[in-house]
């Protein structure tokens, strides 16, 4: 009887230890899963933060690039406007010079025309001798 009682006690003790071990194992597994879940959550959170930081940096770079491009474009347009302005000024100068030249030419032509009308015409001499005298080579015909 004592032996059976002793065996029963041992079996109960063994079962109790098994249950305690199983419970501890379950707790450990649950803790481990919870820890892994928190770790995954932390990693995802960290990745999201890094991604947001990268996106922000990318946007800032894009904004800087846009600003620089706009400044460059503004400068280029100003240069083009200045160039066109200079070309127009040169064209005006050329036009003014041409007009001045035409005016001078017309004035000189009118003066010449006036002088040409007032000049006496030289008398035409016969045989093509200037002033009626022979100058130069004498040719005898025999």
UniProtKB/TrEMBL annotation:
<feature type="compositionally biased region" description="Basic and acidic residues">
    <location>
        <begin position="25"/>
        <end position="38"/>
    </location>
</feature>
<dbReference type="Pfam" id="PF13904">
    <property type="entry name" value="CCDC34"/>
</dbReference>
<feature type="region of interest" description="Disordered">
    <location>
        <begin position="78"/>
        <end position="102"/>
    </location>
</feature>
<protein>
    <submittedName>
        <fullName>CCD34 protein</fullName>
    </submittedName>
</protein>
<feature type="region of interest" description="Disordered">
    <location>
        <begin position="25"/>
        <end position="59"/>
    </location>
</feature>
<feature type="compositionally biased region" description="Basic and acidic residues">
    <location>
        <begin position="45"/>
        <end position="59"/>
    </location>
</feature>
<dbReference type="InterPro" id="IPR025259">
    <property type="entry name" value="CCDC34/181"/>
</dbReference>
<feature type="domain" description="Coiled-coil">
    <location>
        <begin position="4"/>
        <end position="136"/>
    </location>
</feature>
<dbReference type="InterPro" id="IPR045323">
    <property type="entry name" value="CCDC34"/>
</dbReference>
